[in-house]
Write a structure and sequence with these properties.
The protein is globular. It folds into two domains: about 200 residues, no CATH class; about 140 residues, no CATH class. Helix content is about 20%, strand content about 25%. With about 400 residues, it is an alpha+beta fold. The two termini are about 35 Å apart. α2 runs antiparallel to α3. It has nine helices and 20 strands. β19 and β20 form a beta hairpin.
Length: about 400
C-alpha cells in the first residue's frame, strides 16, 4: 500500500457496517462449518462454538483488527468502529450476559450500596469505554452477537452503550451485595461475589439465521486429513435428551431460590407418618419428565437395573403417585450409597443445598443403556442445574 493510499477499513463506520454485514457469506459459511463439528465437544443439539474462535472468524472475514486479548473495552476494530464480540446460548428474546469485570476494584465497590453502587459501577464502566475510544480514536461501537439455539445460529448486532448515570432507577438489592438497575435504555445486574456486571441483550427484529446440521460423527471427517490412518475405533454413544438420558434435580425452587425438601427426596427418612429407616431416600422425578418423555422410564413398579458410577448395581423401580420417585429395592440401598458412601453424612443429618454445593452437584443424570435383555438397565451419575436448559454434561463456561 503506497503512502498516499488509504486503508479501506478506516472508512467503515456504524451505518455502513450495519448496511453491509449480512452480505458476508464467507463469514456465515465458516461459522456453519465449525458449528457442524459441535459433537467434538458436546452431545447437545445446540451448536457449540468457542467464543475465541468466533472472535478470530469475525476479524478474519471482516478484515478487523483483533484486540480481544488486550486491555480494551472492545474485541475488534474496523476503522473508527469498536466492536464487542459475544457468543452465548439464547433464551427467549433476551439474555443477561457479562459485559465487565471489576475484580481489581472490588475493595472500592464494597464501599457502596444501592443506587450509589449502581452509579459507581456505571462510572467505572463508562470510564473504560471512553478510555478505549480515546486510545484508538473510535467514534462508534456495537456488540456483534452469535446466539446459539437448537440446530441454528441467530446472529445480530446490539447497541454498545454508555450507561446514563443520571437516569439510573429501579435499583433492587439482592443477596450478598448484588444489585440490579436500569438507566431507562438497558437493564443491568451486578454479581458482587464475582465482581461481574451483566447487561440484558434483547434480540432485535433484524437478525441473520444460519441453520446448522451437526455432524453425528465429526471424527470421521477429521480422520480423512490424516494419511494412512487406521480408522477402526469403537462406536461412540450419542445421547439424545428424553430418549437416551434425562436430568433429575435433587432440589426444588421457591421464589427463585433452590432448596432441598426437608422431608422428601434425599431427606425422605425424615418424613413423618411411620417409623423410617435412616437410609430411606428417593430421587424425585418431576412431572414434566413423564409428560415430555413418557417412554423413558418403565411403568410404575416395573423393576430395572440401576448402575452406579462406581460399577455397583442396584434393583430399582419408579414408585409413588404419579411416578414421582425413583427408588431402589430395598429402598435403603440407594440411600446408603448417596448419604453414607458419597456424601458421608451421619445418620439424622439433613441434606441441604450447602451439602450439594459443597460437592459441585445438585442433580442426577440418568442414561438408558441399550439392551435387549430384561430387566432394562439405566446408569446414573451426578451433574448440575437440572431445572435449567442442560446443553452439555459439563455446563458451558461463562462466555465473553
Amino acid at each position: 500500500m503506497s503512502a498516499n493510499s488509504q486503508d479501506p477499513t478506516l472508512s467503515v463506520d456504524l451505518a455502513s457496517f450495519k448496511q453491509s454485514w449480512q452480505g458476508n457469506n464467507r463469514y456465515f459459511k465458516m461459522l456453519a462449518v465449525v458449528s457442524q463439528l459441535s459433537r467434538l465437544f458436546s452431545e447437545s443439539s445446540t451448536p457449540y462454538i468457542d467464543y475465541r474462535l468466533v472472535e478470530n472468524l469475525f476479524c478474519t472475514y471482516y478484515s478487523a483488527i483483533n484486540d480481544a486479548r488486550l486491555c480494551t473495552a472492545y474485541d475488534a476494530r474496523i476503522g473508527q468502529l469498536g466492536i464487542g464480540i459475544k457468543t452465548f446460548i439464547l433464551g427467549k428474546s433476551h439474555k443477561l450476559e457479562k459485559v465487565a469485570e471489576f475484580n481489581s476494584l472490588r475493595a472500592e465497590l464494597n464501599k457502596y450500596k444501592g443506587i450509589d453502587l449502581a452509579r459507581q459501577l456505571a462510572q467505572f464502566r463508562n470510564e473504560r469505554i471512553l478510555f478505549s475510544q480515546r486510545t484508538y480514536g473510535l467514534t462508534d461501537s456495537l456488540y456483534h452477537i452469535v446466539g446459539r439455539r437448537e440446530e441454528l445460529l441467530e446472529i445480530f448486532n446490539h447497541p454498545y452503550p454508555l450507561i446514563d448515570v443520571d437516569a439510573i432507577k429501579s435499583v433492587k438489592e439482592g443477596n450478598a451485595g448484588s444489585i440490579s438497575f436500569t438507566d431507562g435504555h438497558h437493564d443491568y445486574s451486578f454479581n458482587n461475589s464475582k465482581s461481574v456486571l451483566m447487561m440484558r441483550f434483547v434480540t432485535p427484529s433484524e437478525y441473520k439465521v444460519v441453520p446448522i446440521e451437526i455432524l453425528q460423527d465429526p471424527f470421521s471427517l477429521l480422520e480423512r486429513l490424516i494419511p494412512d490412518l487406521d480408522t477402526t475405533r469403537p462406536a461412540q454413544e450419542h445421547l439424545a435428551k428424553g430418549s437416551r438420558y434425562v436430568v433429575l434435580p435433587l432440589y426444588g425452587v421457591s421464589r427463585g431460590s433452590k432448596y432441598v425438601p426437608a422431608k422428601s427426596g434425599l431427606n425422605q427418612w425424615n418424613a413423618g407418618g411411620r417409623p423410617r429407616h435412616p437410609n430411606e431416600v428417593y430421587i424425585p422425578i418431576p412431572k414434566q419428565i413423564h409428560r415430555s418423555y413418557p417412554d423413558f422410564f418403565p411403568d410404575r413398579d416395573t423393576p430395572f437395573t440401576l448402575l452406579l458410577p462406581n460399577g455397583a448395581s442396584l434393583l430399582a423401580k419408579v414408585c409413588q403417585d404419579g411416578g414421582k420417585a425413583l427408588m431402589s429395592n430395598p429402598n435403603q440401598d440407594l440411600g446408603k450409597w448417596i448419604l453414607r458412601d458419597v456424601l458421608q453424612l451421619k445418620e439424622g443429618e439433613l441434606v441441604t443445598m450447602d451439602t450439594l454445593n459443597k460437592y459441585g452437584m445438585d442433580s442426577i443424570l440418568v442414561r438408558k443403556v441399550e439392551s435387549s435383555e430384561a430387566p432394562a438397565t439405566y446408569k446414573i451419575d451426578f451433574c448440575r442445574n437440572g431445572y435449567e436448559r442442560y446443553d452439555q454434561f459439563t455446563q458451558d463456561a461463562s462466555e465473553e
